[in-house]
Amino acid sequence: MWQFDSEVAEVIQMTPSVKSFRFKIRAKNVRYRPGQFFFLTIKVHGEDAVHHFSFSSSPTDKGYIEFTKRITDSDFSQALNILKPGDWANLQGPGGVFTLSRKYFKLAFLSGGIGITPLRSMIRYIMQKDLPYDIVLLYGNTSMEEIVFREELEEFASNNPHLRVEHVLSGDNLPANWAGKTGHISPELITELVPDYRERLFYISGPPKMVIALDEQLRGLNLATEQIRRDSFTGYD
Q: Which one of 111, 143, 156, 197 counts the least CB within 10 Å of its CB?
């Protein structure tokens, strides 16, 4: 485990409701695996407050740690929303076992909304290290404007034949030229877009209700327990 005082290096507006927060690494031997999480302490109404966040950065990103969050009405989220470069923070980690398999190299990622963050950490790591994984990502959002990391994911996919990104939109006001899938991720969509699903290890990441529902649907497709890994993002249902 590591722990150190840090400061905000950069705040990036990713979508109308989502921001990425980068913090300077102020210690030696700060290691983590893509998909893990860390604890962040900031000031909320003048008092220390702690919350855990999945890394959206990759261990290959040097000099900073990043997480990405949808801004909500909670006190912690509103305190994050006003953070600016130079503001104090304390970081401690890493934790979690929602990490890349070293046994299975054919993966399927099912994500909704801000649940993309640990999967983006994994994808970025795989792409930057040129690792021999084969990935299909099914990523659900309400609108095209709220697809986090859209340009980066599509650039990775266009440059690597072993990454396929499928967007699924469920909102009412879809663009007239939208050619992707609509509705919600379902068993029918999984079998259509991931025809070799029986050969893959599945990672599910998103709001708890979505994660539970997709876990049940995958089991309904007769996938074994060891073929399914889950990561729930509370507060977004």
A: 143
